[in-house]
Amino acid sequence: MPDNTASCRGMCVASGMTVPAVLQAVLFPFLLVMVSAWDIKKREIPDSLSAAVALLSLLRFSPWNLAGAFTALPYLIVAMSGSRTAGIGGGDIKLAAAIGIVLGLPGGVAASVMGLSAFIVYGLTCSCVRRLTGRAGRAAYPAGPFLAAGAAATYFMEIGGWII
To answer: Model-level pTM?
Structure first.
């Protein structure tokens, strides 16, 4: 029977990744999928999932990554200036901070730009379809899946060697 542990270590060494880096590369997208599914289903992001995402930063810790939490400031400003009944929620703010801690400040900004760009396109498309079909009023859309998609894209660009 082959020794899977040794072959995994061999692949890590060959690719230049450490075991914690590989573990983070597996768990980060898994948690982002969980966040997305939860947000789509319940329209909220549990603190426990955001905390789990943030804890993944410990697998490849760098003090500079803590600055990535500042990527949540624009979300906080929008939430504080908007109405209480709609808009960005606390879960989105915490998720943005957690993603920023994992990716660092440049990666967190890139993830936000990509995720929010996709979210805006989606929201505008849905809004146009609603108007064309005669449905008036506002609709709430989950932002978590778009933030997660931007984070996953940024993360895999970073570990793939693309400079963000």
So the answer is: 0.85
Q: What element of type H or E holds 130? A: helix 90-132
Q: Which amino acid is at 93?
A: I
- CA gap 148, 138 in Å, rounded: 24
143-157 burial: b if 16+ Cβ within 10 Å, else e: bbbbbbbbbbbbbeb
What's the Cα-to-Cα distance from 105 to each of 18, 21, 67, 116, rounded to whole Å? 22, 19, 6, 16
Beta-carbon contacts of 157 under 8 Å, excluding residues fewer than 6 positions away, are: 110, 164
**Residue range 66-108, pLDDT digits in tens:** 999 999 999 898 888 866 556 678 899 999 999 999 999 999 9
Rounded distance, CA 103 to CA 61, Å?
10
Residue 62: CB partners within 8 Å, gap ≥ 6?
Answer: 104
